Amino acid sequence: MTDIIQKTRRKSPAVMLWSLAALAAIALHVTCILFVPVADTFLNAWHLSAVMALGFSAPLVFANKQRNRVQNALDLALACAGFVTGIYFILNEAAVFERHYLTVTDQVIALAAVLLVLELTRRAVGWLIPGIAVIAIAYVLWLGPLFDGMFWFGGLSAYRMAFRVFWQDGALLGPTVTISATIIFMFVLLSSLMRFAGATDFIISGTMRLMRRIPGGSAHVAVLSSAAMGTVSGSAIANVTGTGTITIPLMKKAGLSRELAGGVEAAASTGSQLAPPIMGAGIFIMSDWIGVPYTELVLISIIPALLFFFSISFNIHLELKKAGLLKPVLEEDLPKPVGKAQGLAFLGPILLLIFLLTIGYSPVYSAAWTCGAVILCSFFTPNPLGPSRWLDIARDTMQTLLPTATVLICAGLIVVCLETSGLVVAMAQSLNALGHGQPLLILVLLAVISLFLGMGLPVTASYIVVASFGAAALTSLGIPPVAAHMAIFWLSQDSVLTPPVCLAAYAAAGISGGNPAKTGFKAMLLGKGLYLMPVMFVFHGLLFDQGVGMAIQATLVGTVAIAVFAIGVVGIAFAPLRLLERLTMGLSAILLLWPALTLQLVGAVIATLFLVLNYARLRASKRTEQTV
User: Fold this and answer.
1) Which of 17, 28, 510, 553 has the fewest CB atoms within 10 Å, counting from its CB?
2) Residue 197 to residue 131: CA distance in whole angstroms
3) Could you give the CA distance from residue 500 to residue 502 in angstroms, rounded to a whole number?
């Protein structure tokens, strides 16, 4: 949230006051979720009030640039107005449904809530998602009757729209806000507690010692540490800033260029949004939309995540081999060992989280118990999470939560407009017509749409917008819903590492000192598994939706295809590849990914033949050198 929040450790009275408000918001969230059962609308209204009050007041506290009194007064007024909207709903919900109509004040509050959400979202992520929301609202209110054919919609009155977007159980207080106020809130709190308990230090120290004897170990440390951090962070950018400050200088010292070091960290950190169990906010939205338990989505995501990290590691190995940089980590670069007790504060809670999810506890309660375990275990480490640190934890939690919560609230507006107008069906039919009813072509179109939307939308918003119509287009062709949604979920991650807007790459470039665009290009090449996995989901049954046998076959095919594709792109196997060999290896990878066993066998034979010839050329070259 670049314009709204600038994280800082200043302890001015304003920061203390904002932190106290954040702590109060967290306390009420936890109370409503765990101890005092309340209706979803009550919790959602409180969540809306807290997000808008803290979001609009953040510049008053954290902005580094000088601000005049008018700006401060405006932000304070917006914060108060935002807080009032949710509280007004809580106080007047029963009266509205008793009298069965909205007063003028009720309608004004609904309008104010919509405008405030749009403005806060604009501050958080720019103009694109509020612009889409404005267009969707305008379509429902006025533009629908202007269209012909499948895009015609009769329109709603402003009165009915006010009821639907605010007073009805939808839009600003609907399912996406419930997910933000419960599951996402609790997992963000868990992530903050983990970091404050020293999980990052433990992960970096452990992975460096584990990989110290492996050639190119400094780069593999970035992959393994990002995978481990991803189990609790669910954020690529947070992962870059958390692990990259250590791994990027280490890679540069080992001889990697600034761009390659940054690209490795950005690509690996992207996996934090794909690594179970947290996987970012989108996975919770997916679970709610398709009715598949979150635990099941986590389980079927393990193999794809492993394949993604294998793809990055294998690509890095080839890049380092090509550059002659396959060196182990120097002993002098190894950090001091972290005590077992500090490891307990990380491993113990994670194992507890996995156990609770496995035996059937809900994600919210599993995360809540895990938060308690982190706090308890922290007292056996050098970083106890006592009351003196609660304000810092609360501030970090809400600063991390606000961008995602704001986007989800605004996304609720878009979703309810698309569903109300039937635009979802029309867009899905149009996509099918454009793709001529071919799943592969539609998948390519969705990848392009996701990339362009990713230039202005965060990952979660991109997934929500694309899945709202793209998933329907795929499922209408017989693709299982879980495969369709998971493919779009993975494609929506491309904005993190694909130029021109590659936020994780930009963050990594800021640490490495490299060129952001070149860093993004390196990250895209290293993270190409991001584009291969959706093909495996839709056509190969990697998500177990076509049986265990197909999933095992898909895992083997995916592993070989990733390796072959990486060899062709990087241009080295046992020895450097010529251009024709690289093109042939690329063709072999495509054949391996084609959903026909005969073509897959042809691809495997071609790849094997060229690898044998490549190895023979290496042996011949060595014999020639020995002869000379």
Assistant:
1) 17
2) 40
3) 6
Name the token pair of 87: 């509280």
Rounded CA separation 361/18 (Å): 33
Calpha distance 31→497 (Å, rounded): 38
From the number of C-beta atoms within 10 Å of its C-beta (0-12, 13-18, 19+), residue 548 rates as exposed
**Angle formed at CA 131 by CA 6 and CA 134, multiple of 5 degrees:** 125
Helices (H), 254-389: 258-270, 282-290, 294-300, 302-323, 340-358, 363-378
Q: What is the pLDDT of residues 29-62, one digit of tens each?
A: 999 988 888 888 899 999 999 999 999 999 888 8
Nearest to 232 by CA among 408, 374, 337: 374
State which amino acid sits at residue 380: F
> How many whole angstroms separate alpha carbon 263 and alpha carbon 511?
11
Both tokens of 12, joined, read 């001015």
Sorted by sequence, the CB contacts under 8 Å of residue 98 that are 6+ apart come out as none
Which tokens sit at 478?
């017989």
CB atoms within 10 A of CB 95: 10
Name residue, tokens 């997910």.
179
Phi, psi at residue 543, to the nearest 5°? Answer: -95, 20
**Six token digits for residue 116:** 């405030």
In whole angstroms, what separates CA 436 from the centre of its chain?
31
Q: Is the pTM of this model over 0.90?
A: no
Which tokens is 241 given? 């800033």
- The pLDDT tens digits of the residues spanning 555-585 come to 999 999 999 999 998 888 888 888 888 999 9
Gyration radius from the chain CA atoms:
25
User: Length of the chain in residues, anyone?
Assistant: 628
Query: Given the structure tokens 């054949």, which residue do they identify?
Result: 591
> CB of 435 within 8 A of CB of 442?
yes
